[in-house]
Amino acid sequence: MVKTTITIAQEKRELDNANAIANARALSESDKKNVSYGKWIEVEYTDSMESVYDKYSEGASDIPFSNMVVGGTNDTWTSHGSRQMDNNDYVWPSTEKSGYFKCVLKKNWMAEIDVRTENEDYFYDNLIGGNERDRLDFSDSVKGSWDEQIAFTLSTEGDYLSIDIDDESSSVGQFTLVIQGVKYTVDTPYKMDNEAKVWLKNVWYFTPSYGTIVYDGEDEIIIIDPEHICDEGYEWDEQLQMCVKIEGEGEGNGGGNGGDETILDDTSIILIFGLVGLVVFGALYFLRGEA
Are 172 and 101 in contact (CB under 8 A)? Predict the structure, then answer.
């Protein structure tokens, strides 16, 4: 059975996460130092693609796309933030334009996208056939008014999707889909010339400093995650920003009284006896002189 791009991307995230911890652990053990490690985390956006486009328009950096082009006179955002692309077949001199959309993936991001069209056989005709079509989770049995659907994950920097229903924009291809450097669409697709919808379903970001492998100086490795969960026998030290051993637990000096009781260590006791000895010696010397 052919793996879809969604499954391939999921496996890549799992492998990257495992390798990140393993590599950090090995470096921590060999160099005897603390080493940070990265992890793929899911990022949620309220209103999906609409929210991402708003952030892009504001120049925000915490979004998955390095470039976005969105247009169309009567295009709208749905209640869950998908881009509803309209097909305007008005004749000249009407200035109304059909919808067009483009997004280009940034480094260290992944984006799962669902695209639907009311143009029967459009995806079937304009996607490269065989395994490539199957990798996009192609379906021609879609609920509602939609005739076809594809779902996929953009997973490598530079992956992109472009749709221009009526060839309205010079900066957007009529229909182009590139994933991991592989082009899934034919070289000369025809115009979609019908309604379409683009839905951003899931987003992931690989944060390079998700957690830390801490080397404690005794060949012991503790993994610190953002919630600061420490191994048994360790506790989180906010000042040192690391897990430290719990000393003297259950031995009386652990502070059952909140630290009000004063406990003298060996050095203190020696100093006290020394001072007492000097006082006694001085007293005897004084008494001897009086005699």
Answer: yes
What Cα–Cα distance (Å) separates residue 280 from each residue in 7, 167, 266, 288, 289?
Answer: 84, 105, 21, 12, 14
Residue 103 lies in a domain: yes
Split into its structural domains, the chain has a count of: 1
CB atoms within 10 A of CB 289: 7
With a pLDDT cut of 90, the percent of the chain lying above it is 49
The answer to whether residue 222 is domain-embedded is no
Report the candidate in 47, 26, 43 with the shortest Cα–Cα distance to residue 35: 26
Between CA 188 and CA 175 the distance in angstroms is 9
In a domain, 249, yes or no: no
- pLDDT for position 257: 32
Asked if residues 51 and 70 have their Cβ atoms less than 8 Å apart, the reply is no
Calpha distance 97→254 (Å, rounded): 74
Residue-range definition of the domain harbouring residue 128 = 5-12+42-205
Closest CA to 71 of 150, 194, 162: 162
pLDDT in tens, 204-237: 999 888 888 888 766 555 666 665 556 677 776 5
Q: What pLDDT is stored for residue 291 in this prediction?
A: 46
Instruction: Examine residue 48 and state whether it is found in any structural domain, yes or no.
Output: yes
Which residues of the chain are under the pLDDT cut of 70?
91-93, 217-231, 236-244, 248-291
